[in-house]
What we know:
- This protein is mostly helical.
- Helices cover 45% and strands 11% of the residues.
- It has 4 helices and 3 strands.
- A 3-stranded parallel sheet has the order 1-2-3.
- Strand 1 (64-67), helix 3 (70-79) and strand 2 (82-86) form a beta-alpha-beta unit.
- Helix 1 crosses helix 4 (100-107).
Amino acid sequence: PVAQINHRRCQTTLAEQLTSAAGARIDAYFHCPHGHDACECRKPAPGLLSRAAAAFGVDAGETVMIGDAASDVEAGRRFGARTMQLTTGPSDADATAPDLLGAVARLLPR
């Protein structure tokens, strides 16, 4: 389907930008396959973050949830991660960055 093709293109473009500009990489993508009904993996519930952490053997306290919405910040907090919101405005997150490349630049050592 067209939606899947566009999603893959977006993932590829994002991965290329992160690798070339910031020296970062994307190891996996996780998504909620459920509808908009409440489930433990749909934000702001932390279930999907827990699944990702378990897959990579990391503790919540070692992670940073980066997102552009208040629900991303809430999910990160519920999970126990530090939070970074992609915004140039006010935020309740632990930190902000204007975009994903800016967030990665703040997090990775130079």
